[in-house]
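## tool: complex_structure
## caller: assistant
## args:
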Amino acid sequence: MSEVRLLVGTRKGGFVLTSDGRRERWDVDGPHFGGWEIYHMKGSPVDPKRLYASQSSDWFGQVIHRSDDGGATWETVGNEFAYEGVPGTHQWYDGTQHPWEFKRVWHLEPSLTDRETVYAGVEDAALFRSGDGGKTWRELPGLREVKGHLWAPGAGGMGLHTIVLDPQDPRRMYIAISAAGAFRTDDGGQTWRPTNNGLKSPYELPDSEAEVGHCVHRIAMHPSRPNVLFMQKHWDVMRSDNAGESWREVSGNLPSDFGFVIEVHAHEPETIYVVPIKSDSEHYPPDGKLRVYRSWTGGDEWEALTNGLPQRDCYVNVLRDAMAVDSLEPCGIYFGTTGGQVYASADSGDNWLPIVRDLPAVLSVEVQTLP
Amino acid sequence: MIRVILPAHLRNLTQVQGEVALEVTVPVTQRAILDALEALYPQLRGTIRDYTTQERRAFVRFFACKQDLSLDDPDSLLPEAVASGAEPFRIVGAMAGG
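## result:
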C-alpha cells in the first residue's frame, strides 16, 4: 500500500508525519533540529529519500540539512549563500538604496529530473542553485537585474518564497518575491522578466499596475498544464492561462480574497484551493471560522469546506508554504496553521481531521506520496 | 589546549558533548580560536561569524574570565588564562529578552 510522508517546518523544529494510504492514523517524528526555525523541508521527486531542510535562527544564521534516508538521519551541507559579484542595492524603507544582505533560505525546490540539483529562494530576494546536493550554491544573478534596485522589502522581509518548475520545459521556471512580484525565465535562470501584467495593487503601490512591486504570496501549477497558473496575491486570487503573460482575477464569491496559500488538486487541474484570511492587518480567518475554499472551475465560483474545521473562535493563520496535496486517489489535502495544527483531508477537502494539534507555529507543509 | 564552550544549539549541530578542546596556534586570539574551531567543525561556518565579512554575528557573544570580549578586536590577545586552558572561551547566544 502507498505511504504518505508530510514534512512540516515550524518555528521550533521540523516534524515528519507518516501514514499509510488510508491516511487515518499518523506517526509523528520530531522535532528535528529542535529550537531552530525550519522554514521549509522538501523531498526530491527523483529520489524521495533525498530530503532538504532549511534551518535558520536569528542568532546562528542559516544551516542547510540533507537526508538520504527519508528523514531518519541528517547531515549538514553547504550554507554559504554569496551574491554574485558586487551585490548591489535595493530600495529601502526610507527611500534610500540598501545593500543586498543574505538573511535566510525561505524555500528549497529540488529538481524534477536531477537528484543533485536543488534551488533555494532566499531573503534578501535572490535565487541560488546547487548542482551537488546542496554542498555548494551559486546565485542566478540575472533575476536581480530585473529592476532589482526598485524592489523594497515589506514588513515580512523581501523573501523569494515560491519556485515553480515547468515539468514540460526544463528551462522554464517561475518565482515569486514578497513585495516585488512574479518573474519567469525561459533559459534555465540566466535571464528573467516580470510576469505581473494584470495584477492590480491599489492599496500597496502608487502605480497600481506597476511592472514590479506587487506582493505575490504564492503561485501554483498543475503539472499537466504548465501554462495555467494560479496565484494568491496579497489581495486577489488570480489566474493566468498563458504562462504568466497576463493575469485575471478569479476571487469571485470568496469572503475575503486576502490569503497566503493556493493549491491545485492532484488529478483535476481546474480544482483549486485557498484559505481566505480576513485582511492584511488581521491575519486570521473571517468571522473566526477556519474555512478552506474550493473551486471546481479554476476560480470565480467557490464553496466553503468546513467539515472537521473549527467554525468558531479560530484566529490562526495559514502561511504561504503551508498547504500541499498528495497524489493518491482520492486526493489528499494538507495544511498547517500558526496555532500548530496540521489538518488533513483524505477526500479532496470534503472532510478534515487534525493530524496534530499542538506543534509550534507551522511555517511549511510538503507531502510525499511514496509507493 | 584551548577550552571552548559552545551554546546548546551549536553543540547539537556539531554533536559535541561538553567542552571542545582545541589546538590553537599562538598568538591566541578570537580569530585564531574561531579559525581552529571551524576547521574542526566545518558546519559551524556562518553560524558564529558572517561568511563573507567574518564579523561576529549580531546575537553571538564571546565571554571569558568574567569579561565580555565580544567587542574586542578579533586579533587582540586573549587573557592568559584562556591561552593556558585554565579558563574556557565561551561562545554564547545573546539573551532574547522578553
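## assistant note: The CA atoms of residues 5 and 90 of chain B lie 5 Å apart. The two ends of chain B are 37 Å apart (CA to CA). Handing back to user.
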